[in-house]
Recover the amino acids of this structure.
């Protein structure tokens, strides 16, 4: 469904992503794990055409490497960015409306808002509230629901559990699993490697811009290198 071939991302003289290849199948959760600075967010931003890149990106066998971000969203790919990036001075509902800026049909727009309220009932209770006054978990739900407003086929999530309390983290991963059950395809970047690999169909490990390991979520969970480097487990040698 989504294919990345020989992707490079440069920031000045720094090669942040070094010729990686990814493949995301329909209705899968695919996760990228790695340390800070490994190139995870740069990869996601390249897919969304938010940074200059070299290589090829195919969506449904169509080359979208040079498409504008707006057209990529319209085609069916949406990003919920790291740090939530909600509009704090706007209400919950105003944030949702902005997530579907290209939907001109008022009836369809209201229908999508209702879908988000059904998925995240707490947001319906807070619909009138300024987004900046929400709790961290509620803000993350708003960020995800805003990305879902245009009804994407592929949802890209960048660090959805960042800064959340442990009880809220489980809730976010439950939501991600539910979205896959609803038919969404998800590309997930997450520092909580254990949780990410538990729900992933397939996973890639990035180190200094290169893919060093890949396999199913369960395969990487049981890989000694992954256990020691990312899961905090001491491996006997």
């Amino acid at each position: 469904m989504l294919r990345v071939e020989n992707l490079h991302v440069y920031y000045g003289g720094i090669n942040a992503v070094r010729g990686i290849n990814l493949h995301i199948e329909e209705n899968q959760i695919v996760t990228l794990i790695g340390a800070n600075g490994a190139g995870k967010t740069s990869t996601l931003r390249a897919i969304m055409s938010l940074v200059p890149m070299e290589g090829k990106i195919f969506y449904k066998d169509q080359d979208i490497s040079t498409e504008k971000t707006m057209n990529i969203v319209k085609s069916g790919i949406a990003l919920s960015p790291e740090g939530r990036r909600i509009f704090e001075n706007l209400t919950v509902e105003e944030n949702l409306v902005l997530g579907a800026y290209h939907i001109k049909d008022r009836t369809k727009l209201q229908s999508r808002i209702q879908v988000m309220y059904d998925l995240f009932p707490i947001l319906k209770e807070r619909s009138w509230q300024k987004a900046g006054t929400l709790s961290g978990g509620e803000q993350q739900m708003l960020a995800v629901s805003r990305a879902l407003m245009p009804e994407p086929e592929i949802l890209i999530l960048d660090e959805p559990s960042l800064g959340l309390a442990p009880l809220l983290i489980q809730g976010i991963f439950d939501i991600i699993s539910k979205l896959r059950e609803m038919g969404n395809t998800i590309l997930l970047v997450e520092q909580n490697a254990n949780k990410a690999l538990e729900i992933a169909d397939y996973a890639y490990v990035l180190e200094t811009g290169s893919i060093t390991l890949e396999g199913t979520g369960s395969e990487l969970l049981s890989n000694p290198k992954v256990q020691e480097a990312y899961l905090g487990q001491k491996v006997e040698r």
In short: Strands lie at 2-11, 14-24, 29-33, 53-59, 62-63, 77-80, 154-158, 185-189, 202-207, 210-215. Residues 166-181 form the longest helix (16 residues). The CA atoms of residues 226 and 232 lie 9 Å apart.
